[in-house]
Design a protein that fits this description.
Strand content of chain B: 25-35%
Strand order of the largest sheet of chain A: 2-1-6-5-4-3
Helix content of chain B: 10-25%
Largest sheet of chain B: 7 strands, antiparallel
Radius of gyration of chain B: 23 Å
CATH architecture of chain A: Roll
Number of domains of chain A: 1
Shape of chain A: globular
Structural class of chain B: alpha+beta
Number of helices of chain A: 4
CATH topology of chain A: Nuclear Transport Factor 2, Chain: A
Oligomer: heterodimer
Order of helices and strands of chain A: HHEHEHEEEEE
Structural class of chain A: alpha+beta
Chain lengths: 176, 417
């Protein structure tokens, strides 16, 4: 089973009550998710790859495909190098609408920890605001993440965004 | 002259001037529904592999009208409008499923229809306790769903509302069929779907995929990484009506010096640009013809093509005069081994809503819709490749297939004399 399939089949109903998971760790994970959102919303794209392991994976899936068991990803960046390439493209190469973004992160749910990998599910709502100040709800969905501690810092092993808004508003240039 | 008048005047004699009104006039949009999509055209409905078993169905579109495409018990394919023969309610509510068990039952009053659209039963047809019910002469056979004529070619399903249409085989013609044959001569599999809600008139996307001129200028990825360059061997083909087109690019006969001269003042070619992780380019070619890019369109609104090792259909579904859904069906081959399959998933990064190449085409549509807004008295200039006869050309520096689209469009859309 590849990571895409795994992400879609996290066990339902696992209790977020593992005593080994201290309150400090829970707070650290929530803070990590908020720092990630702030990084994007403050347009610090160059720092975005720092949230990932070198062999980390960032992917965006359509809920439609996940529910039909179809593997085609919307975005599939399977190394930190590729994530850095996305940043370079966004900054220097790609033609896309300039917008402000605003991420709302909620319902953070720590499914459990296994071999040092924390499985975390959260919801997101991402608003985009045009250069003329008009705001639209761009995308909602959930994130299914595998987070590890590396050199004292949290990092994504995988961040899998599953978009309910699978009819993407125009296009998806910026990360979620 | 009103915007509607300008739109009705059409794109001029040599189709090198397209009135902006055609992208924003509501009357034009309504007329397209009646005379184009529901007129003498074959409309893409889906793929046979999507509905393999009896009773399987999918939702498709003819223009902006929803249709249900069914595999019948006998193994044929039938399509009907997704609107109950009773009061018009949407009949099928899921995008895909199987109706073999329960037939298609309207949620509103439980009228049941078979997979070919025939009315099977009407609850309380003969009344309740001797009262009410349908008139005595009510004949279920006269209340089927409205069906389309359906034909397939190499597993692609098309439907038409015009009963006297020539066959799909002839509609595609001898210049389009070979490109379909090239891809669909081996069993395909669907790897997924993507949808984009693009804020632009649907015809702007057709212009985009018939325009090889933009591809080496808008898309740095194409140019810098050798998927598509202006200096590659390129050819633009059209069928006799000029409504369908093929844009083919092969990495043959390129000269790097020529590239540098051509892009002297343009920022979209950067030979020094390197990827930190170029592994997504490591796929084996699927054919030995060195074709790196093939974009085919079937009039009015299907695009089918290859970009590097990706294969896909893109159905341009109008959603009002100023929006369309770009509905992608992303394909692999049944014969793919694990490495080939993984390669196709990696190259999904080129195409689809977030693809390094394709995301820019959505933006191009938005830019033109925005830029032409309120300027219905103006027209675009479509002269790259000349403004003379509309014929095949052996160059990518051309917009001739865009003019071909407008020629066919105008033949069908122009008001009767």
């Amino acid at each position: 089973m590849n990571d895409r399939a795994k992400a879609a089949t996290l066990p339902a109903g696992s209790l977020d009550a593992d005593p080994a998971l201290g309150a400090d760790m829970r707070a650290a994970i929530e803070r990590f998710l908020i720092e990630y959102a702030r990084c994007l919303d403050e347009d610090r794209l160059e720092a975005w790859p720092n949230f990932f392991l070198d062999d980390g994976c960032y992917q965006v899936l359509s809920r439609e495909n996940v529910e039909h068991g179809l593997p085609a990803p919307i975005i599939y960046h399977y190394s930190r190098g590729m994530i850095e390439d996305r940043v370079t493209s966004l900054r220097d190469a790609l033609t896309y609408e300039p917008v402000y973004t605003r991420h709302m992160v909620s319902n953070v749910y720590i499914v459990g920890v296994e071999a040092g990998v924390y499985r975390v599910i959260s919801n997101y709502a991402l608003y985009q605001t045009t250069i003329e100040g008009r705001t639209d709800l761009y995308s909602v969905g959930r994130c299914e993440d595998a987070i590890v501690v590396r050199d004292g810092r949290l990092k994504f092993k995988t961040r899998t965004v599953i978009a309910d808004t699978f009819a993407v508003k125009n296009n998806m240039a910026l990360p979620i | 002259m009103t915007e509607a008048d300008r739109a009705a005047a059409g794109p001029g004699e040599n189709f090198a001037r397209v009135p902006f009104a055609l992208f924003s006039d509501p009357a034009t949009f309504a007329r397209e529904r009646d005379v184009l999509f529901r007129g003498p055209t074959w409309n893409y409905l889906g793929l046979e592999v999507e509905i393999p078993k009896p009773g399987d169905y999918l939702l498709g579109y003819v223009g902006d009208v929803q249709v249900v495409v069914n595999r019948t018990p006998a193994g044929g394919i039938a399509a009907f409008e997704n609107s109950c023969a009773h009061r018009g309610a949407q009949l099928v509510r899921r995008t895909r499923g199987n109706a073999a068990q329960h037939a298609h039952t309207c949620p509103y009053h439980q009228w049941r229809f078979d997979t070919a659209g025939a009315l099977l039963s009407v609850p309380q047809e003969h009344g309740v306790k001797g009262k009410g019910g349908m008139p005595a002469d009510f004949d279920k056979r006269r209340h089927s769903l409205r069906t389309l004529r359906v034909e397939t070619y190499k597993g692609l399903i098309f439907g038409t509302c015009a009963p006297e249409m020539p066959s799909l085989y002839d509609y595609l013609g001898p210049k389009i069929r070979p490109e379909i044959d090239r891809i669909f001569d081996r069993p395909i599999v669907v790897l997924g779907y993507w949808r984009q809600a693009v804020p632009a008139n649907w015809k702007l996307y057709l212009e985009n995929v018939k325009d090889p001129y933009h591809a080496s200028l808008l898309h740095l990825y194409h140019t810098t990484f050798g998927i598509y360059r202006a200096t590659m061997a390129g050819r633009v083909l059209m069928d006799d009506t000029c409504g369908h087109s093929v844009l083919r690019t092969a990495d043959i006969g390129e000269n790097p010096t020529e590239m540098k001269a051509l892009y002297k003042d343009i920022d979209k070619y950067r030979p020094g640009y390197k990827l930190k992780d170029p592994s997504l380019f490591e796929t084996k070619p699927d054919y030995d013809d060195r074709v790196t890019n093939m974009i085919m369109t079937v009039f009015p609104n299907l695009m089918l093509g290859q970009v590097a090792s990706t294969f896909q259909t893109r159905h341009v579904r109008p959603k009002g005069v100023d929006g369309f859904e770009l509905y992608w069906t992303y394909l692999g081959f049944a014969s793919d081994d694990a490495a080939a399959r993984e390669g196709r998933l990696r190259q999904a990064n080129f195409v689809g809503p977030a693809g390094y190449i394709s995301l820019e085409d959505g933006e191009a549509g938005r830019l033109v819709q925005r830029g032409t807004h309120g300027l219905g008295d103006r027209a675009s200039v479509v002269e790259m490749g000349g403004d003379g006869a509309i014929a095949d050309q052996d160059t990518l520096a051309t917009e001739v297939a865009v003019r071909g689209f407008w020629k066919r469009y105008h033949e069908l859309m122009r008001p009767a004399p």
